[in-house]
Amino acid sequence: MPNTAILKRQAIETIDTHSRALIQLSETIHANPELAFQEQKSMALLCDALEKQGIQVQRGIGGLATAFRAEVCGKLTGPTIALLAEYDALPELGHACGHNIICAAAIGAEIALHGLMNELPGKVLIIGTPAEEGGSGKIHLLKQGAFDGLDATMLVHPSSRTMVTRGSLATVRLTLEFFGKAAHAAAAPEDGISALEALLAAFHNVNALRLHLKADARIHGIITHGGAAINIIPEYAAAKFSLRAASNSYLEEITQHVIQCAQAGAFATGAELKHTVDDGLADMIPNRAMGRAFADNWRALGIEVYEARPNERMGSTDHGDVSHSVPSLHPYIAIAPEGTGGHTAAFRQAAISAEGHLGMLNAAKGLAMTTIDLLCDDNLMQEVKSEFAATVRK
Ligand SMILES: [Zn+2]
Ligand SMILES: [Zn+2]
Fold first, then answer.
1. Domain-terminating residue out of 256, 277, 298
2. Average pLDDT for residues 329-342, to the nearest whole number?
3. How far is the centre of ligand 2, averaged over its atoms, from the C-alpha of 88 (Å)?
């Protein structure tokens, strides 16, 4: 087995040597926010940074023009590890989720490992995954086979708390449409069926349902169509709901309950219901064996790593679906004071602050060091696989 301590030290040195360029890359992407599937400039900057180091890049993969893939190979066979990069921004808010840090860190780690592949077995991929904030690029790439044959995937997301094994919520979006019958609201109300009243009943039923939900459930809806004119009984009304839960199975359960709430509204008023559930996002199942290795590496760099609290705030990510197919880890690195929420102006600022830059470099080091462990330590890789088989592929 290669001397991992020496290899890790070399990886850290390479990242430090490239720190200026990596920070500049992160800042440039931050200054040019691009929305889902339109990340042309960001993708070009990231691919150029890899090519500059002599790493061949495939631009546009799995039918997505702004996805990319590169690999560096060792001399001996071994595991294949993929570092994932996100680089999309939010409408109006720009890089308020700090994806500039995610992608710059992945590039830093890939470059550091590229320099060590003479001594490492296996392969290290970097996969550029567009549209995390809307569009679920990773799910598209997963369906296209971009994650086939991988042994592990990793991505470090910026946050206000450093944690390695926080999960994420499974989520789906539900559209409810009610079809009633228009009539003059004053002259002939008895001829009408109000689609709006059916919809309002559905909202009330959902609120009643909340009394009996587990703490991890989240249900919120908006009315997108409530009627055309005040003097016409609305013949059409529609709402969109976002549903989330800590596991796919509980999410399925509450989705069925919410549909029943809507059916009851339709039944009570005589309206007809059409419901549409989108594909959604699966919950993130962090691989704990990978998490232990990652936390040890960060602690060796002097970084404080916290355990996720039982009531830890969680969002959703398309990395969740990947974690159901390949052992995966989605650590968080603190770049802002604790409690600073993502998707805010304060977090956008933090993503290019001195703390943000340091977080990005530490993310790159953690990724490189843990990849070295996964490639060199057969026992660790075995543990990762057995855990995956026991917890995900039950
Ligand atoms: Zn986000
Ligand atoms: Zn994000």
1. 277
2. 96
3. 9
